[in-house]
Amino acid sequence: MRKSLIILLALAPALGLAAPEQEPQVKENAQIAAVLSDISAKNIEATIRKLVSFGTRHTLSDTQSDTRGIGAARRWIQAEFERYSKENGGRLEVTLDDFIQPPGERNPQPVQVVNVVATLRGTQPESRDRIYVVSGHYDSRVTDVMNTTADAPGADDDASGVAAVMETARVMSRKNWDATLVFIAVAGEEQGLFGSTHWAKLAKEKNWNVAGMITNDIIGSSHADDGRVVKDHVRLFAEGVPPLREMPDPLRTLVRTGGENDSTARELARFIKPEAEKHVHGMTVDIIYRRDRYLRGGDHSPFLDAGFPAVRMTEPNEDFRHQHQDLRKENGVQIGDLPEFCDFDYIAQVARVNAAALGALALAPAVPANVEVETKELTNSTTLQWKPNTEADLAGYEIVWRDTTSPFWQHTIAAGNVNRFTLPVSKDNVLFGVRAIDKEWNASPAAYPFPRR
Length: 453
Ligand SMILES: [Zn+2]
Description:
By secondary structure, the chain is α/β, with parallel strands linked by helices. Helix 3 crosses helix 11. The longest helix is centred in the C-terminal third of the chain and has 20 residues, at 344-363. Helix content is 30%, strand content 24%.
């Protein structure tokens, strides 16, 4: 019998299995902390003001001018990524995902759409193929989504997200991470998620291992429309059961076993919140159990539709007078998405939340694969098994569990470096997860166990 199990069995009656079996890892990761302190609100402000200076970044706007329109904007973003790369030993690979979007509802003519992509290759051989994506969209719009010439500053929506992604790329490319990070400034969001749809489809076709995706869209303001100021919260939208017309078997099994709150997007959110809050002091990540806000969409959606875990970050209280609006004054009140309504210190905090999450993901081992709970016969214990991870620095695995009504993991036990583990907690009463741990205590997100008879 395993030592940890003996300890657990010995403790079980005394604890009533209610107390945490293992201290939560509250220690900050030094590399992540170093990266967070490099994030600069000044850089973020400069990026947003520069993006606004292109007048409009409408997807159908001018592409030839060097000073106005989406072409000038994307060439500048590309040059910035290349500058970060040059400053950090050429470690960011800057490429363009450049394609023609066929005509549709919001583009009567075929239109060239260009995603600017900066890739930071993972340095651990076993983890290089594991990819985490972070995006913001650099296109903008005014009231009429087909108005391609009016000034559309898009400071909050979504120069704020692009600036956070660029600053995160700049600081993270100074360090080594086990897994690969892909920073993308996408276009065509306002016309129908063109850029993100193209990249997510490409990833799916090429069978890339996109283990997580975060979109940052409207993360620029700490001011609500009623005057309230909230500088220390960010919303994280995380879908549960995807709204598919037909339910594939794995999804049916997830729902049938009470795992509707344990989709891979929810496990990603359940990972991001504590990692971000541990490293970004004073920030609270408010997980919202929903794909997105009503009437709105974002670049995480095509990733979810392709089957990848994807979530969306958005400011806590949106002021709709400063989104998708023609620049104008109404009763002396300025309407429009101008930089004066942005809070650059707040955006820097959200960038830190991103960097903490991405850093923790990219340092940790992969989520254990083929995690199963044995259901051969009726028992009041639980036996879990999984496929061994391949990372050279793997230390072992942790079992986590929580009440079925609880949003977050409540109990953790070290299983050691094994691939099968039994514990005296009834699978009928709780939700389990299995995490992989490396020798520096970096833990992966949890995997939900599927039943095996
Ligand atoms: Zn947006």
